[in-house]
Structure formats: C-alpha cells, structure tokens
Write a structure and sequence with these properties.
The protein contains 34 helices and 5 strands. It is mostly helical.
C-alpha cells in the first residue's frame, strides 16, 4: 500500500503534460486494474479518492492555469478508465457512496463537506467544471484576474452552451472548449453506467443513484446543463454549413460533443413514467420559474424541465433539429459523400420518444402540422433498411414503438393523407400516393422479407395500421394489394392453426378493411376493387374448417414451408432507383441482447372514439360479446392470457389447436361488412364485365368510384383505437436498449468493452 500523503507517487498519474484518453486506455490495461483491485484494494481506493480530490480542487479554483486544466483532464480520463472495473465487482459497488475517512486532511475543507460521499463530490465537481470560464465556456470578463469566489457566484444560466430553448445567445464555437466538455461528459456517462452492471430487474424501479443525485436540486447547474445538452443536440447541423464536401476539409469537432450530449441526455431521462407521478402538462410555469402552485412533478429535474417546456418556438426548434438530424443519413445528394453522415440516430429516436412520452404538449405540437412527416419518413427508412439485419432488432423496435405512440392520436392518421413526393431511395416498390401508402408498403416489406426475430412486432405493425385506418382517404392500388396479400398470407390454415395468437393478425386486418369501408368508402375504390378481386380469401375465412382431421391436415402442410410468409402473389414491382437492398448483418457484428417486450395487450389500452371525436377508455373488464360485430368482442382478455401461456410452448411444437379453440374465435371474425359489400357489388361488377366484355380495370374502378353503399352496410361499428400505455415492461426494455446502444457506440476509447456487464449480453451475429 502507498500512503495517501505520498504526493510525489500519486501526482505522476495526472501531472504528465499531454496524454489523450486513448493513451490512458493503452497505458492502463484491464488486467492491471483488476489485479490492483484484488491484490491491493487500498491503493485503488486511494487512487480514486485522490483523482476525485483533484477534480474538486480544479472546480474550486476555476482551473486558471494550463497545468490545472491538464490535471483535471488527466484525472477525468483516469476515472473514466477505472470506474467500470469498480462497478463490475459487487464488493466495490458501495465504495463511491461511502465517505472517505479523514478526507479533511487538506485542512481547507469544512467539516460538513467531509460527510459527502465520494460519488456526490465527483458529480458536483463535474457539474462545476462544465461551466468553468476559459476551460469549458467562454469567459465574459475582460480581465484575466478572477478570484476563486467568482466560481461560486457565477450564474451558469448565462453560460449555456448553445442558443435554443430558454437561451437566445449563441456563443462563438470553440474547439478546445468542446473537447473539454466532451471529456467531462464521457466521465459523467461512465459514472451513470453503473446501471450496466445490474441485471435487468422485473420491477424496473431500481433508481440509478448517480443520475438521481446529479439531476436533483443538489446540483445547482441542473437547469443550465439540461438546456445546454438539449440545445447542443438540437442546434447541430452536420451538413458543413451548406458547402458540399466541407466535412472532408475540416474535421467536424462538434459531432463527438453532440453524440456525448445526446447519450448523457437520454440516460438522465431514464425515468419510468408508469410508476411515478406524471409530469405536469398544464404549462402554467415558464421554463425556469418553479411555481409553488404547481404539483411537484418528478424529483428528477431533467425529466421535470423536459415536461415543462411549452413555448411554441421551443417546440419548433426541438422538432426541426431532431428531424434535420434524423433525415441526415437519407440525404443522398447528387454528389456521393458530399454530406457527413451522422451515426447517432438511435440516440435521437430515444430522445424523441422521451419528449413525446414526458411532454404531451410536445406530442400534440408534433401532430399539429405535417412536420410529423419529417420524423415519419426517416423512421420508415430506418425500419426498411434494418429489416434483414439481426444486429438492428432494437432499432426496429424503437421505430415501431414511436409510430405506435403517434398512431394513438387522430391527427397522425389525418396527416398521413399528405401526398408523398420526397423520393428517398428505398428498397420498396415504386408507387404514387400518400404517406399512408408509404407506411403500408414498408410494413408489408418488413413482414414479408424481414428476419424471423421480427415476428413479435407484427401485432404492433398491424395495430398502427388499424389505428390510422379510419382516417385514410384514398389508398393507392399498390398499398391496397399489399394489405390483401398480408390477409392472404395470414389466413392460410396452417398459419392460423400453428400458434395460439396468429389469428389476431387476421382480426387486425379485417378491422382495417371494416374501418375504411365504413368511414372512408368514397375515396377508396382501389381497396374495394382489391377486396372484390381477392373475395375468395374472405369466403375461405368464413368457411374455415374446424373439425379435428382438417386441423391435423393443415398442420401437416406446415412442415414444408420454412418461412411464415411467402412473397408469392404480392407482385413485387421494381424497387426505387438508387436504392440498396436491405442487407443482413455482417458476420461477427456485435449486438447486445434485449429484454422481451410486453404483448400488444399490455402495450396498449383500448379507447373508443365517440361521436364528437373524443376518446373514451374501454374498461378492461371482460368485454360483452353481445355486440358480435364490434371488434371489442374480439379479445376476451382471460382467453387471450390463457392463449399467451399456451403459445409459449408452441416453439417446441407442443401447441395443439382444438376444434373448440378454432370455433371460439372463428365465430367472432368481423366479416359481416365485407360479406355485405361483396354481396352487393360483385354481381354489379360481373354484369359490367359481361355486358361490355371488359378486361380493363379502369372501367370497373370508375364504376366503383361513383358507386355508393349508403343504407346497404351494417350499422357502422364504433372506432377503436389502441393507445400506447406506459408500463414497467417497456421502461425496462428502453433501459437495456439505450445502454446497449451506448455500449456498442463507445469504441474509441472502448469504455465498457470486456467488462462484466450484467444488463445485457454481448452477442456476435
């Protein structure tokens, strides 16, 4: 053991003039850190304590000299290197939360300061250092002689890093300050990463003590830092100020800071909204003033501030910024490589999710104009691009979750009717139509040509289509055919009988058709025509065999087709020009495991749309099956749970469908509306064909466009919307996904590689 007072020994760790974080990682190998931890724990403890002490001293003095700044940077690099090895050992986990005996040895500190746990001193020092004039922010003073007191009286709200929410002044960009901020944020993120070393907890209530303290009122910089992080991310424009190829001439030093800021931001916002009091949405307070009249809101100030943003111009700034960054990978300009491609779209999607989840006013703002489509198109691009890639399952999930959340609001369905003219090169059939057509074509592509692990998402994808269907004014022929192809694939007997919940997919599709026929018949002649052409599918469903020999025979047929869905009969048109096919992951790609997501019944809550357009939540009491044609009768929740339980055995081939089981749901298939439509229109269409000897569809479409079914269809069913509801299952999923992304994205330096993380497993494709 080396005495803590032996300054000459300890100073050599941080006094070296210039090292980089990469040097520290190379000079301090993992094996040595673990060896010290096991064999001379007191030395490791002293090293950590001394490094924190140096950061505290730097924060106290204000880092005026170059030497002090170098010491602060070296200490923060060293701690970034060592902390993961402290977290991976359960015996050390409490170390930073204990007070160091005799910490007052320097004599300068007051006694009450001694009682602070090491973690708190470290976090407060980092916060102070992030607003340190001439180190991480521009000094406002002309004179260089600053006394130490000024650091304590400094109002960090005047030193916010970037203009945007709550701050109008954009400071001069400064490369050195950006690099220093980035190093400190990396250390902060490493402090927060203790969460990676705890296995996923089913209750998800485990609060991260580092985040809890940092985002509490103890941190006097909480507001300016939250604002700085948010504004730095949302104001970033990677295009190189509009000059093509600019990024090749000047290495963009802002991007690493923006990435780090985005990662720190989403981790501080890791807050389970299902279990805690919901943030206030009345917006009576301004961004800064905390009014006593307000309900307290969450303890976590970052979540609190996020939920209180309410000015239109702030929402506009955030939405424009996120949309600009999400669209960046899609910018295939005429000059290849002329724009810099950002890599942090997954962090941005998590941030967007948090904004919508914690701030309902923001969600309504997003849906108020067609700006929401600037978020939708990049998400559909990522979903389509990642559909064959096993290592990007998490990206698929978060994209679908965001669309599920948006689809619960009527405005989203209405916005989808805007014509789609932006031609982003995507590996999908060419079509002319609206954003709704784009969504349906991409979803069809995911279902028919994604990889196996995406099957749990089918429920979610179709729920989104059901939610928007009552508002879709006119589907293109391409999209109409895609929907019918899905119905065809999902209603084959072997698919229906081979797992306990497969028939739900048919229910969802029938609900889509019923919504469009009942509420949007007039503009949807393409869909009506497609239904007439594929009428045999509906007749087969109505006459589904339920006797045991037929069920047995259907399941025998299952042994042959390996894929659950064929692409046959889907008439794949040529893909768009300039698009690349969705590729599987390169062998050996690293990915992190994810916890299972809750079933659609837990993810969503049913609401009925009343006459005036308001939503009324449907009680989750067992539904009355008296209303046969109401889709509400479709899922008696008890049976649904039972089936989920039974179906868990289906993978091992033990699922045994019975006649009773088939009858139980066959009788509820909502086919009345479609059967009535076929009964009325098929004879008329056949008559036109015979009379005019027609083989041309345009004449039939013209007839259907002017036709009407008023008074001929059953009474319209109430519209059902399945709204996303927060629950601890998704909160846990987001935590594992977010940390998995952060783990994989931090490769230089590789902060967490080869440490014993418990939150997820690292797998190779």
């Amino acid at each position: 053991p080396v005495e803590a007072t032996d300054d000459a020994f300890w100073d050599q760790f941080w006094a070296d003039t210039a090292t980089s974080v990469q040097d520290v990682f190379a000079l301090v190998p993992a094996a040595e850190i673990r060896a010290v931890r096991e064999e001379s724990p007191s030395n490791l403890a002293t090293l950590c304590y001394k490094a924190v002490e140096k950061l505290v001293q730097g924060a106290e003095s204000g880092c005026h000299s170059e030497k002090e700044r170098q010491i602060v940077l070296n200490c923060s690099r060293l701690l970034t290197r060592v902390l993961p090895y402290i977290f991976e050992d359960p015996d050390w986990r409490g170390f930073f939360w204990s007070t160091v005996p005799g910490a007052g040895r320097g004599g300068a500190e007051d006694d009450d300061e001694n009682a602070r746990p090491l973690a708190e001193s470290l976090l407060l020092a980092i916060a102070d250092l992030l607003f340190c004039p001439d180190f991480t922010v521009q000094s406002h003073r002309r004179s260089t002689v600053d006394s130490a007191e000024d650091i304590h009286s400094l109002d960090s709200c005047e030193y916010i890093w970037e203009a945007g929410v709550g701050f109008a002044h954009s400071p001069q960009p400064n490369y050195i300050h950006d690099m220093n901020r980035m190093e400190l944020l990396k250390l902060l993120l490493t402090c927060f990463s203790e969460a990676m070393y705890l296995p996923p907890a089913p209750d998800s209530s485990s609060i991260n003590p580092w985040v809890q303290f940092f985002c509490s009122t103890e941190n006097r910089h909480a507001l300016p830092l939250f604002t700085s992080l948010l504004n730095t991310v949302c104001a970033y424009d990677p295009v190189g100020y509009g000059i093509p190829y600019n990024h090749l001439l000047f290495s963009d030093y802002r991007e690493p800071l923006v990435e780090e800021a985005a990662q720190v931001l989403i981790v501080t916002l890791d807050h389970d909204s299902a279990t805690s009091a919901s943030p206030t949405v009345d917006g009576t307070t301004t961004g800064t003033a905390m009014d006593d009249a307000d309900p307290p809101g969450p303890e976590n100030l970052f979540v609190n501030y996020l939920s209180r943003i309410h000015r239109e111009e702030d929402f506009q700034f955030i939405l424009k910024g996120i949309a600009r960054l999400l669209s960046n990978p899609l910018l295939q300009t005429y000059l290849p490589n002329s724009t810099k491609k950002i890599q942090f779209h997954q962090e941005l999607l998590v941030l967007f999710w948090k904004l919508c989840d914690f701030n309902k006013k923001f969600l309504f703002f997003v849906l108020k104009s067609s700006d929401v489509l600037d978020i939708l198109v990049p998400i559909l691009y990522f979903l389509n691009d990642a559909r064959a890639d096993q290592s990007r399952v998490g990206l698929m999930h978060i994209g679908v979750f965001i669309l599920l959340l948006l689809s619960g609001e009527r405005n989203f369905g209405v916005r989808l009717n805007k014509p789609y003219s932006v031609r982003v090169p995507m590996d999908i059939p060419v079509f002319t139509g609206t954003h709704a057509d784009l969504l349906i074509v991409v979803f069809h592509k995911i279902i028919t040509s994604g990889h196996q692990r995406l099957q749990p998402l089918f429920d979610c994808l179709l729920t989104i289509v059901v939610n928007v269907s009552p508002y879709l004014k006119s589907l293109s022929m391409v999209a109409a055919n895609k929907l019918l192809h899905l119905l065809e694939a999902f209603s084959t007997t072997w698919f229906l009988f081979s797992a306990a919940q497969n028939h739900h997919l048919v229910f969802f599709l029938l609900e889509v058709f019923n919504n469009i026929i009942q509420y949007q018949f007039d503009g949807n002649s393409n869909l009506v025509y497609a239904i007439i052409r594929k009428r045999s599918v509906f007749h087969q469903l109505a006459n589904l065999p339920t006797d045991p020999p037929a069920i047995h025979k259907a399941l025998q047929r299952r042994r042959r087709p390996p894929e659950p869905l064929s692409r046959a009969g889907s008439q794949e048109g040529a893909s768009m020009e300039g698009s690349r096919p969705a590729a599987p992951a390169e062998p050996g790609t690293l990915k992190t495991s994810l916890v299972a997501t809750p079933g659609i019944d837990k993810l969503t809550e049913k609401s009925q749309v009343s006459e005036d357009g308001t939503l009324r939540s449907l009680d989750s009491a067992p539904q009355q099956s008296s209303v046969e044609d109401s889709p509400a009768a479709e899922e008696p929740s008890q049976a649904w749970r039972e089936q989920r339980r039974l179906s868990s055995a289906s993978a091992s081939g033990q699922w045994n469908p019975t006649s009773e089981w088939v009858l139980s749901w066959k009788s509820k298939l909502p086919l009345q509306t479609i059967m009535r439509l076929l009964q009325v229109l098929v004879p008329q269409v056949e008559k036109i064909c015979i009379d005019k000897g027609l083989t041309d569809e345009s004449e039939i479409l013209r007839f259907l466009q002017h036709g009407t079914l008023v008074g001929l269809l059953p009474v319209p069913h109430p519209i059902l919307i399945r709204k996303y509801q927060a629950n601890s299952g998704t909160a846990m999923w987001f935590r594992t996904y977010m940390w998995g992304v952060i783990y994989l994205r931090n490769v230089d330096p590789p902060v967490w590689y080869d440490t014993d993380v418990k939150l997820f497993e690292i797998q190779r494709v």
